[in-house]
């Protein structure tokens, strides 16, 4: 061990002393602290400077840059130290401690009641670092019973890549971030670990760490289906007037479809204009499926959620089931609404069967995208594509039948056969303002 006694800027007295022999070396934490201080150019408590790797039990940080992991070096420090989170918290903190101090360990014993870890250099170099912790039966917490926190193996290095950076460690670091931003990508986790923790991890560990964190936030997805019955009861009990229905497969009681409309949303919808947007989107969970949704518009021109359905796929049967529940709600309110939707085949058939004669407008954006796909820029050029879309817009927004006819004639000439086919499959009552059944909407709105 080298001691520096800095008497002035020009001369330095050096005293070499073996702390291990003299018994003055007090363990990892002190050594690491001293090293950090020396790297920062500060004079530590004993003005100690370490030249790592030449001394047993010493360690060195890869970077002097302050990192969020710096505090981990204090995670394991004395016999009697308690971990309220039990074995799980102890194992996690042990990993972080080893990672920050710069060594690997192996479990000599590992279960819910006790954990024994030894330095991975025990076999090769006979390192005596060892920790033993067990559960306190009265409190359920984990307590360090014995600890030899001195390494006798060759100096350790806090490296950017470590076997101790396991997916569980990643999950513990990102669980709050993923709760706030579930779409956080594994590549973002990799970059953040590099920037804030000075760690390099593989894509797999980032991905799996994210999956574990999601599990912690949302729980096990298979178990969550089992909670649906409890969830229905809770909704009915706490949100009076709600409509919930869980349909299970006969014989095996496996959940098949779920419908919910909250009492608060039903009450508020009576003050919304009579419009409902019907759409579906993919569920990205482990079990996939589709989320069906009926949304209105609030007074701030924002979405107003009215009803949700969870089904396996967007079929006519599932749409019919969803719309029948929606119909029971609307009939109870005595309201007729105008529907907006894309032209999903199953939805169109179900809509005709459940809400015959109710005004139904096709979403202009979807129609425009359909038209654009028939005139790709590569084959027809942007000029023609823009002209066709512009003329179709004139047809859709024409106020009078005459105005519609002029725009349509021009569209057919410009767009030729592709437009003719496209238009022939569309009923103008469902997309052209001049023919839409606005009378029906206004009449009903007056009634409400
Ligand atoms: Zn060791």
UniProtKB/TrEMBL annotation:
Domain Transposase MuDR plant positions: 78-144
Highest taxon listed in the record's lineage: Eukaryota
Coiled-coil ranges per UniProt: none
UniProt cross-references to InterPro entries, sorted A to Z: MULE_transposase_dom (IPR018289), Transposase_MuDR (IPR004332)
Residue ranges of every copy of the MULE transposase domain listed in the record: 276-370
Protein name: Uncharacterized protein LOC110760440
């Amino acid at each position: 061990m080298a001691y520096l006694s800095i008497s002035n800027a020009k001369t330095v007295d050096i005293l070499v002393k073996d702390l291990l022999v003299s018994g003055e070396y007090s363990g990892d934490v002190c050594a690491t602290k001293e090293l950090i201080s020396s790297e920062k150019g500060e004079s530590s408590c004993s003005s100690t400077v370490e030249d790592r790797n030449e001394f047993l039990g010493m360690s060195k940080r890869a970077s002097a840059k302050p990192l969020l992991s710096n505090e981990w070096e204090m995670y394991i420090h004395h016999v009697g130290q308690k971990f309220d989170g039990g074995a799980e918290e102890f194992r996690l903190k042990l990993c972080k401690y080893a990672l920050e101090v710069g060594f690997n360990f192996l479990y000599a014993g590992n279960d819910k009641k006790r954990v024994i870890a030894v330095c991975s250099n025990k076999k090769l170099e006979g390192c005596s670092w060892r920790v033993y912790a067990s559960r306190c039966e009265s409190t359920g917490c984990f307590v360090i019973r014995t600890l030899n926190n001195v390494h006798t193996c060759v100096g350790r290095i806090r490296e950017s890549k470590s076997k101790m950076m396991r997916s569980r460690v990643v999950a513990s670091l990102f669980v709050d971030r993923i709760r706030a931003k579930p779409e956080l990508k594994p590549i973002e986790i990799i970059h953040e670990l590099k920037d804030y923790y000075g760690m390099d991890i593989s894509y797999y560990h980032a991905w799996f760490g994210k999956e574990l964190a999601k599990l912690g936030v949302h729980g096990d997805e298979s178990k969550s289906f089992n909670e649906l019955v409890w969830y229905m009861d809770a909704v009915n009990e706490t949100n009076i007037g709600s409509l919930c229905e869980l349909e299970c497969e006969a014989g095996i009681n496996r959940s098949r479809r779920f419908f919910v409309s909250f009492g608060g949303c039903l009450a508020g919808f009576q003050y919304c204009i009579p419009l409902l947007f019907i759409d579906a989107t993919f569920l990205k969970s482990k079990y996939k499926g589709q989320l069906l949704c009926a949304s209105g518009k609030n007074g701030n021109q924002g979405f107003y959620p009215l009803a949700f359905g969870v089904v396996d796929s967007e079929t006519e049967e599932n749409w019919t089931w969803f719309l029948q529940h929606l119909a029971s709600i609307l009939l109870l309110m005595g309201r007729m609404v105008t529907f907006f939707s894309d032209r999903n085949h199953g939805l169109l058939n179900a809509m005709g069967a459940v809400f015959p004669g109710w005004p139904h407008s096709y979403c202009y954006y979807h129609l425009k995208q359909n038209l654009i796909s028939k005139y790709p820029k590569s084959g027809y050029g942007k000029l023609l594509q823009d002209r066709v879309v512009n003329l179709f817009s004139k047809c859709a927004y024409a106020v009078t039948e005459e105005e519609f006819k002029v725009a349509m004639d021009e569209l057919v000439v410009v767009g030729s056969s592709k437009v003719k086919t496209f238009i022939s499959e569309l009923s103008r009552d469902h997309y052209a303002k001049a023919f839409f059944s606005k009378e029906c909407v206004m009449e009903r709105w007056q009634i409400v």
